[in-house]
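[Discussion] Sanity-checking designs against the backbone

I'm trying to build intuition for which residues belong where. Below is a structure token string of 514 positions. I'd appreciate it if someone posts a full sequence so I can compare it with mine line by line.
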């Protein structure tokens, strides 16, 4: 790669189901955040290659009571980001509640409270369109069979111009079952171009699917279709679901995801043009994804990427972190020095991190790397523990635990995957975790924790309790949840009981290339 080219993926982590919009010289991107809070990440770029995380549009998930505990694969699915009437708009589907919308004058907010535009189970992947030619507003969405019993179809509505409600019962405008070979049609993005209504929508599933384009003269159809991006003879599986954006000079580009197992859905940038003969979009290299390409004809800036490192100044954490459920006051304590101070939250689920809402997480990097953090356990409560985890359907963690004899030990544990859709074990049903290595006495109550993440998300754990860095346990292979990539996480907890259980302090969180 040179300064004149870029290499995919441009966002090599789980920025799932991306959508993009340009306002002036600025590009903005959002992505699915599922059950984490804050949600709806907001990224900014000037060149479509280098992106920074500038905030989140959704502080808490609603209804708040339903997200007090983790719902890792639920919540915010496949948002659409638009700019209309001098406002930013984000629509998304909660598969259990319906289609929501928020809006703001400025990308950094303040954003409005979530408004339920259309209620119902299985309503997913919504996208609005304000038609400048007619003044009409429209909404298209897909269906999740797990909730609605149907899928592989797109439903269209007329929408109130203020985006507050749909104005009709809706009509199936694309029936995937009637297109030979098409299945799992979803993720529509709606546009107006050259006198046509366009829907860019993927099909075929996240790991092996393709990107389709549909066009019609009337919003309600009939639509004709074409495959415009597929794997062909490349190593980019399932290239699809994203957004089209046009630069100020008139170049067209398409951002989409690729499913990469534990790393989640990484984001690729593809050149796009409109075929002069047929008027259809041509994405990538004649419909195949590019690995390296000329950069967009935009002013060059310094290299940039979403932040990962953190010194936790004053006990505050950076934008890259999200909780595994809606947070409550007191989980993290601000103070005068650097370092993240997490309360050892009392819980009956101390032996299953998947069930805990108070894990502070960020995305697993897609490139081989080493993750390190400093930890000091202050709690005197027997059974209190804190650590660094790679969290997914299976997980591993390394950290410190206070023993029954009040000594502190370096411990390393893991948990195997649970059955698909199975809830965490009820209180008293037995421990899910198992020791990955023998515990070692940590007399100072401090440790430097390290996870080396190699190819295939294979993780090696290590620690330093004052006598040098030592490896711990066997290799652990990170696993995703059903729709969410594996996460890096920091946590502090204690067994059930009464009274304050103390805290743990994390410092100098670093991620470095291997």
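Best answer:
Here's mine. Compare freely.
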């Amino acid at each position: 790669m040179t300064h004149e080219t870029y290499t995919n993926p441009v966002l090599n982590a789980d920025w799932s189901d991306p959508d993009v919009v340009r306002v002036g010289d600025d590009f903005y991107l959002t992505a699915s955040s599922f059950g984490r809070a804050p949600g709806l990440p907001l990224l900014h770029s000037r060149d479509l290659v280098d992106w920074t995380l500038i905030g989140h549009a959704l502080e808490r998930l609603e209804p708040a009571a339903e997200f007090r505990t983790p719902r890792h694969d639920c919540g915010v699915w496949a948002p659409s980001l638009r700019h209309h009437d001098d406002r930013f708009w984000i629509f998304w589907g909660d598969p259990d509640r319906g289609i929501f919308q928020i809006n703001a004058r400025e990308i950094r907010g303040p954003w409005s409270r979530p408004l339920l535009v259309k209620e119902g189970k299985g309503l997913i992947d919504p996208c609005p369109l304000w038609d400048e030619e007619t003044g009409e507003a429209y909404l298209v969405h897909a269906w999740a069979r797990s909730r609605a019993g149907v899928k592989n179809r797109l439903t269209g509505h007329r929408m109130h111009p203020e985006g507050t409600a749909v104005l009709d019962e809706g009509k199936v405008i694309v029936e995937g079952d009637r297109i030979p070979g098409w299945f799992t049609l979803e993720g529509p993005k709606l546009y107006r171009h050259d006198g046509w209504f366009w829907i860019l929508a993927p099909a075929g599933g996240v790991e092996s699917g393709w990107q389709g384009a549909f066009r019609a003269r009337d919003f309600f159809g009939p639509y004709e279709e074409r495959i415009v991006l597929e794997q062909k003879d490349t190593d980019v599986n399932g290239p699809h679901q994203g957004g089209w954006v046009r630069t100020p000079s008139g170049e067209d580009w398409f951002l989409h995801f690729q499913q990469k197992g534990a790393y989640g859905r990484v984001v690729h940038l593809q050149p796009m043009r409109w075929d002069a003969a047929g008027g259809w979009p041509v994405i990538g290299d004649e419909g195949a994804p590019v690995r390296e390409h000329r950069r967009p004809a935009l002013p060059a800036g310094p290299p940039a990427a979403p932040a990962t490192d953190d010194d936790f100044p004053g006990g505050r954490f950076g934008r890259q972190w999200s909780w595994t459920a809606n947070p409550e006051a007191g989980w993290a304590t601000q103070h005068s020095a650097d370092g993240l101070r997490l309360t050892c939250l009392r819980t009956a689920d101390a032996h299953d991190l998947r069930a805990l809402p108070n894990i502070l997480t960020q995305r697993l990097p897609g490139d081989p790397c080493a993750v390190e953090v400093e930890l000091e356990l202050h709690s005197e409560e027997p059974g209190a523990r804190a650590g660094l985890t790679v969290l997914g359907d299976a997980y591993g963690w390394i950290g410190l635990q206070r023993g029954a004899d009040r000594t502190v030990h370096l411990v390393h544990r893991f948990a195997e995957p649970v059955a698909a859709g199975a809830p965490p074990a009820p209180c008293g049903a037995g421990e899910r975790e198992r020791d990955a290595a023998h515990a070692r006495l940590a007399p100072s109550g401090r440790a430097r924790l390290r996870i080396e993440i190699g190819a295939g998300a294979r993780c090696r754990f290590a620690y330093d309790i004052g006598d040098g860095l030592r490896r711990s346990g066997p290799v652990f292979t990170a696993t995703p949840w059903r729709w969410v990539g594996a996460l890096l996480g920091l946590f502090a907890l204690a067994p059930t009981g009464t009274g304050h259980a103390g805290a743990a302090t994390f410092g100098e969180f670093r991620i470095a290339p291997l």
